[in-house]
Specification:
Blueprint lengths: L1 H36 L6 H8 L6 H22 L3 H27 L2 H29 L2 H6 L2 H17 L3 H21 L4 E2 L2 E2 H19 L2 H17 L3 H15 L9
Antiparallel strand pairs: 1-2
């Protein structure tokens, strides 16, 4: 009996670990995609298109607005930690009232039976969608995000905005570090947890280093400077208490003072 319980517990732990890994991969895939999108305002084609509508510095405008809205959302989350549940409840009540009104309209038109079945099915469809969305978001949220809000997003945008103001387009290397190193190191540390160096495993550090070094060496055409930047990036990733805040800024700072070439200078 005890052996059976132990086996069941092992299955539960294994399932929970797979679920956590899946959530981490999805979260880091989203992180990677949105980070790369932040490079778009730095490209010559985007700058040229923006200038046609009177925006001379689209990167500064976009980074400032994103930082402001991220901080605003984060402040609301901190003051109202149950905001998502309240919004879901509001939308559910709104849907119920709307369907009730439609049923009343159908009754007045004499098509109550047929349309009522359709309304009930529609209500069930929306309820399932709400439950699935809530489950997905809950799985992807980390514990501290549920308590303090999405502070990592705010930190990352503050870091990118400051890096752009101080170091201009060298921020591209900071964004790449945030996208590549932060994502790969976290996933590989979960997959290959040992041997460990502080908060990341040694294999994850080595692979993250290579994955970051190769593209920036190609983009900058400066292999030696890219090597120095990559070493700094890995050290920051290992030692930093909050890499979303430090990684973009310190990477941009290093590339700026090394005068590493920018891949697209307008």
């Amino acid at each position: 009996m005890l052996r059976h319980l132990s086996y069941v517990e092992e299955i539960d732990v294994s399932y929970a670990m797979r679920q956590d890994l899946q959530a981490l991969i999805i979260r880091k895939a989203i992180h990677f995609s949105f980070s790369l999108l932040l490079i778009l305002p730095l490209t010559p084609s985007f700058i040229e298109a923006s200038s046609r509508i009177g925006i001379t510095n689209p990167a500064l405008l976009i980074y400032s607005l994103l930082t402001f809205f991220a901080a605003l959302v984060n402040s609301i989350q901190i003051r109202k930690p149950n905001l998502r549940e309240e919004m879901m409840r509001f939308l559910r009540d709104l849907r119920k009232r709307s369907l009730t009104k439609l049923e009343s309209l159908a009754r007045s038109l004499g098509t109550q039976t047929l349309l009522k079945i359709g309304f009930e099915e529609l209500d069930k469809l929306f309820s399932r969608a709400e439950e699935n969305l809530n489950t997905i978001v809950s799985r992807l949220e980390r514990d501290y995000e549920k308590q303090y809000g999405y502070v990592c997003v705010t930190f990352a945008l503050i870091s990118i905005l400051l890096a752009y103001i101080l170091f201009n387009k060298h921020v591209v290397y900071g964004i790449l570090a945030l996208a590549i190193v932060d994502s790969i190191s976290a996933i590989l540390t979960a997959l290959i947890p040992t041997p460990k160096v502080y908060k990341h495993s040694l294999p994850s550090i080595a692979i993250s280093f290579i994955c970051f070094y190769i593209p920036i060496a190609i983009l900058s055409s400066s292999p030696i400077k890219s090597l120095v930047v990559s070493v700094i990036v890995i050290l920051v990733e290992i030692a930093s208490p909050e890499d979303n805040l430090t990684l973009p800024f310190l990477t941009s700072l290093t590339s700026y003072y090394l005068a590493i070439p920018i891949p697209f200078n307008h």
